[in-house]
Amino acid sequence: MMIKIHIMGGTLNQQNINNKTLILFKIKTKISPSRILIKGNQRGFGYIEMEVKMKEIWKEIEDHDGYFISNYGRVKSIRLYRGSIEPRILTPRKHSRGYVNINLNGKNYYIHRLVAQAFIPNPEGLEQVNHIDEQKNNNVYTNLEWISNYDNAMWGTRNQRTAKKNSIPVVSVEISTGHVQYHMSGRQASKTLGIQ
């Protein structure tokens, strides 16, 4: 998870030690950053990025005794093996549409749905789970949200990606000058050239 702290009009506490600028700040939280990156300009405007490691939390998957899902989207089984109980992280498979799934007791389940069911409240009874960053293999609970069918269909760059995939490129040549212009689609060509 990436946290950005914006700093405007100067830094919180800036010190120069051994020709390196250190920016000291306090964060009132119990999470500890595993990587800190400072970006900005010389006028004191910028931000600090911190990559924060969240504690991995496991919850038992409903109706599947011995199987657990984590807030990171990992699945494990706890089974009796040679007289002792051993947890085992299961290897997910990538679905043909790009989603990650896991086979539990002979049935396939999408991992993003298991994570959402375990970690994200759904008081409105929404039916679909959306990947906020549009990366279908990023199943961390902070990247997921419950969403309606309509909102999921309209989310992010879906319409642009579909239009680009289904469009046929067009090349226009101005005969008098020989000027060549490339257009992503016939619609874009007609807009650019003023043709109806």
What does this structure look like?
The protein has 196 residues and is α+β, with helices and mostly antiparallel strands. It has three domains: 2-52, no CATH class; 58-154, Alpha-Beta Complex (Homing Intron 3 (I-Ppo) Encoded Endonuclease, Chain A); 167-196, no CATH class. The chain has four helices and 16 strands. The protein has helices spanning 111-119, 149-154, 158-166, 186-193; strands spanning 2-7, 14-17, 20-23, 33-40, 46-52, 58-60, 67-70, 75-81, 84-89, 93-94, 100-104, 107-110, 128-131, 144-147, 170-173, 180-183. The strands form six sheets. Strands 6-7-8-9 form a four-stranded antiparallel beta sheet. Strands 1-5-4 form a three-stranded antiparallel beta sheet, with no helix packed on it. Strands 10-11-12 form a three-stranded antiparallel beta sheet. It is elongated and about 85 Å long. The protein starts with a strand and ends with a helix.
List SSEs in N-to-C order.
EEEEEEEEEEEEHEEHHEEH
Mean pLDDT: 75
The CATH class label of the largest domain is Alpha Beta
Distance between the termini: 48 Å
- Mind telling me the C-alpha Rg? 25 Å
In total, the number of strands is: 16
Low-confidence stretches: 1-36, 40-47
- Level of helix content? 10-25%
| Total tally of structural domains | 3
The main sheet comes to: 4 strands, antiparallel
